[in-house]
């Protein structure tokens, strides 16, 4: 188990996911809030689900038919009754404990995204582009969920590095102590600074006349397509805590 | 008709689409070519369509149910038998001639993307992430198609600015002369330079230690996630010519 795993490789993957999250948020920010996408009931549908929920459910079913959700970092928001792949899939290296696939914090991600995050980075308004809006939401949710559930690999590699530190805490179900062992404040500060910088660089309006110092972003963050501070807040309040929840959930059953 | 249209607004929209195209290509470049996604037949499917074709067809059906493909710049690759929207949609301002929705160069975009572009910006290889790969392809196709079909607005605004120049050529069906009238070499050179610069900025590996001059990209383009030269080539060989094909197709029927 886990012979391909290294902390450097896992960290590299997490850093690359940051770009995907920033891109997805920048794209969603093209559209205003578009609240009707989140409460309008389907015409003729008696279950009254919103367009957003309808779209994510159906998109996940399609992705499952195409062979997605086979890897433990790809976790559906609506795992009930997902169809089987219609096309041949290629196995992936099994580096995690077999129950890894069942570890999910997607309910918390869903609530966080729609109730907390969306108002922080979209402007109030309604331009009627609902279908496009929910497709962009799905991209954000997928990128966030994958980054956070990648915590399973982080936990595995940390466990393998120091089983003697983790095993007694796992046997004792010492959730808080495990959380402390997984927390590195200095690293977290660096991550927050980096995602903020990425939002500043990727969200700028590039013109041929740019001066060279715009790699640090515009003089004024308000010119960025997504406020860079939202990215550090997103990571501080939700992405890193939820990732550690995933890590603890994984570790608590690591010795089963 | 077209009271909301201005050349400045249309140009602004085209420039913003560049960012979406660059983001989509950078995301697709995370995965290698993954050729089996393009030739493996569906298990049990007798029509033998590839995973990519299956995915785009089904994704377009889902997006149509959500209310997409109502605006003339959003053109499906598989328009046959698209389902109707299941949710209430909001009208959009009708600024184009009514036949605008039927102008499509998606067949050419499809061939260009899979046969020409994909080998230019993905590395040869097969990592088995086929479902993710085709979802990323769909995002690229959608962004390219929207940018190119935005040419309908470009044509309309140019026609309105100078109907006396366009009308005789339209009556004479003078395709080449129309193409000349729509071609501004200096503008095209600027666009090519700008998309290349965007690829350099958005595709860099951002670290906290970056020096400030990296807004111009890495010293070495090979460190970029997509070679910036591919973007200028994409625009030079395909995006701008296909946009002008859309413009000419639109104008030829503008006086019907």
TrEMBL record, chains A, B:
Domain of life of the organism encoding this protein: Eukaryota
Alphabetic keyword roster: Amino-acid biosynthesis, Aromatic amino acid biosynthesis, Isomerase
Any GO BP: aromatic amino acid family biosynthetic process
EC number: 5.4.99.5
Pfam assignment, any one: CM_2
GO molecular function: chorismate mutase activity
Reactions it catalyzes: chorismate = prephenate
One annotated Gene Ontology cellular component of this protein: cytoplasm
PROSITE patterns for this protein: CHORISMATE_MUT_3
Keyword Nucleotide-binding: no
Residue ranges of every copy of the Chorismate mutase domain listed in the record: 130-247
Name of the protein in its database record: Chorismate mutase
Organism per entry: Zizania palustris
